[in-house]
Amino acid sequence: MNGCILILVALGLSIVFGLMGIINFAHGIFYMLGAYAGWLTVQLTGSFWLALLTAPVAVGLVGVLVERGVLRRIYGTRNANFAGVLVTYGLAIMIPDLVRMTFGRPGKPFAVPESLTGSLFRLGAIDVHGYRMFILLVTALLLPSLWLLLNRTNLGLVIRAGTSDNLMVQLLGINVARTWTITYALGAALAALAGVITAPLVAVAPEMGGLVLIECFIVTVVGGMGSFLGAVAGGLIIGEALALTGMLYDVLADVVIYLAMALVLLLRPRGLFGQEGMSEE
Amino acid sequence: MRGLVAAALLLATAPLYADYTPFYLGLLAEVLVFGLFALAYDVLLGHAGVLSLGHSAFLGVAAYATGLLLARWRAPLEVSVLAGAAAGLLTSLVLGLLVLRKRGVYLAMLTLALSQVFYYGVLMWTPVTGGTDGLGNLPVLYLSEPLGWRLSKRPVTRYYVLAAVVFGAMLAIRHLLASPLGRVMRAVKANETRAAACGYDTGRVKLVAFAISGCFSGLAGALLTVALEFVPIENIHWSMSGSVLIMTLFGGTGTLLGPFVGAGVFIWMRDFLSKHLEYWEVFVGGAFVLIVLFLPDGIVGSLTRWIGRRRPAPASALGAPPPAPGRPAPPGPAPAGPDGRLLESRGLTRTFGGLTAVNGVDFVVRAGELRAVIGPNGAGKTTFFNLLTGALPPTGGRIVFKGRDITNLPAHAVSRLGLARSYQVTNIFGDLSVFENLCVAAQSRVTHYRPWGRADRLADVNRRAEEILGLLGLGAKRHARGAELSHGEQRYLEIGIALATDPDFLLLDEPTAGMSPEETRRTAAFVRELAGRVTIVLVEHDMEVVMGISDRITVLNYGQVLAEGTPAEIRDNADVRRVYLRD
Q: What beta strand segments (E) does A97-169 contain?
């Protein structure tokens, strides 16, 4: 299940990097904000299903604000890629404290929706929980639709073309600025959705963004930055590695994924599915 | 120099202003130590152009190393502090070797991820490190005999010892940055490809910068342990890397003073804002975003520029050393292979996927020749140059230069053998001054990475750069940044950088690209003049230039040699006419 969440968050990170060349350090924030938006929705309306809708939409709008208000100022400046890391890093420091200011320091409990509680069936010695199946289902539905969006629609074509040569796409008369905003918001919404569906499994807390961000970095290094398949494969590998070592030898769980990353870096620096050149800058 | 004396005086008298209050003295010491950390960080960011988000590992590992030595093994203070610096150095070498396989923002991401390993290491090792509680119970700190000072009993003594060590480290870093090594680091930051083409192993330079940065970060970590008498786990958490980045950018990168000012501002925010505001990180983060967006030079950098603008600009020609008279002495005859063959390729081939850009090219240039390589667009001329200079590894074939096989040598090694090139698309050190552009290139013939002595006092290098400057007619622009030159001037500088490495063999890739007719004429005459002193191969589209100045011409088409001969032979060659005139 861990893997599913990682895939969703890492995909947004990877798509944004592919198009804009910016490693979005604020990505974990969107995940955390998604969880809070979901929590708020449940508090106000009592409906978990509505939260699945409101969180991505609300956080997507935050993404639009960040892209229009902050990132837009640095495109085309000297060292724009560095500046992109720096400003999103600043946001990653600032926003958790804003959330603490608004919602308080302690985490918020988030109950599993009633219809999904309890065990569905037993698989050998393991209980398969309804909620975990739900996460799997959401991911399984979302991934193909995303793939279709990126590979079979006009928007997807522009995103992929912009990834390989941004200037040329602009010269063809396509509004790249709008595509960037949409892409950034899409990444934010994906992270937010992942945030909502994780929320019942962990406590909703301002710090949850930082951890998932680093895990997603590892996922994209292992899978290959900017690659759809890479994010999926990397997410599965890292998710399973975390789950397995967590079960077998808890203390090592956090370290094993770093070793996996170091290994990939040494043997195949561009990642399992990364394209040559893409990983360089 | 005056700045240094002022800084030393300020450090020496600071306890007076701080009223000898232990609290303020402690705070002051902390500012100094964090300032050193930020300065060490800036060696990498501001001078070598590498953005790291993993410096918490260097500071943290060193802090724990020092703390453990003091607490568990009761080691003397000096030994513990030195061990801390060594631990920082070692950590940075391991991390650097891994992350330097990548560049730019990707590298930044890797440093962040890898530095977390050390944080988890501390957590896993809780019985020894104290885990989240931090490492306490450090014994009363002594300097070992003969001084025998008891540091923690007297805050003033401790302040002075810390201030002295920080000041010394600052001097050492200042010295390193002014050395030939420091110059090469700035060249790598400004333009890594060109630095490699000038004969510098840029991977190694970045690793050395990483190690220097890690070593001084380690020293800062060790001093922090001494200052706090405690190792908080925050030292090794990734947020510490963020803090040092913020300090450095607050103050301004690329300056000596900036990191200390930034550390002061940061610690003021932390201590005084957090006293009144529970959520001070909002302001730190917000201020950081604003600085990145609107004040990219930081506080010190912006102030310096502002003061510089208010003062009348110094007349650039004054104060500069007088230009050296005369022309560069012709180099001795280049040691060539058998029967005067200087460069030779056999069956040279390069494929990109399904495309064969260079296909079995046999090519011989004799010493003293001026050879032109022509061919329609896409004939593989630039790829051919990239193969000869080691910028690209060939798929097949051999290259022999001065009787030596250089087929798989990297670009910097090829350059050191005396094979220089200019680029079709201008590829200069845009952020460095014109004079410094030439010095970087000229220095590769004298020393590569010497970490001592002052780079700007290398007499041979200055003389050589001065000669080239005169030759190019760019004397009036010596202080201008490369990026500020006009297109034509940049094209001259492009050739000048290649010349400054004092090559025996010069590859010029379309030297007249984008030039006006007048500039083209001047450049052609210039190349012809150079040909007396150095063997030249040039790629050129301007047929008038090609026919007018070359001894022999090689025609490439679809990656293969179509014809070779004197200008007259080429003009009359039926194959060449067909390719060019399509008749």
A: 119-123, 126-129
Q: Which pLDDT value is given to residue A74?
A: 83
Q: Which residues 19-78 of B have a C-beta within 8 angstroms of A?
A: 51, 53
Show the domain range for A65.
Answer: 2-205
Q: Which of residues 227-246 of B touch A (CB under 8 A)?
A: 238-239, 242, 245-246
Give the ipTM of the model, two decimals please.
0.83
H helix and E strand count, chain B? 25, 10
| Assigned domain for A25 exists | yes
Angle at B125 between CA B122 and CA B130, to 5 degrees: 75
Number of domains in chain A: 1
Q: For B73-86, write each residue's pLDDT tens digit.
A: 888 888 999 999 99
Distance CA B39, CA B34 (A): 8
Question: What is the model's pTM?
Answer: 0.87
Cα–Cα distances (Å) from B467 to A190, B199, B217, B437, in that order, read 60, 20, 41, 13
- Residue-wise pLDDT for B414-471, tens only, equals 999 999 999 988 899 999 999 999 999 999 988 888 888 898 889 999 999 999 999 8
* Domain limits for position B475: 338-581
- Burial level of B137, CB count in 10 A (0-12/13-18/19+)? exposed
Higher-pLDDT residue of A161 and B334 is A161
**Dist CA A190 CA A212 (whole Å):** 13
Give the dihedral of Cα atoms B363, B367, B370, B376; nearest 10 deg.
10
- Residue at which a domain ends, from B214, B238, B262: B238
Residue B32 in domain:
yes
Cβ neighbours for A110, distance < 8 A, ≥ 6 positions apart: A35, A38, A39, A42, A199, A200, A203, A204
| Chain B residues within an 8 Å CB radius of A102 | none
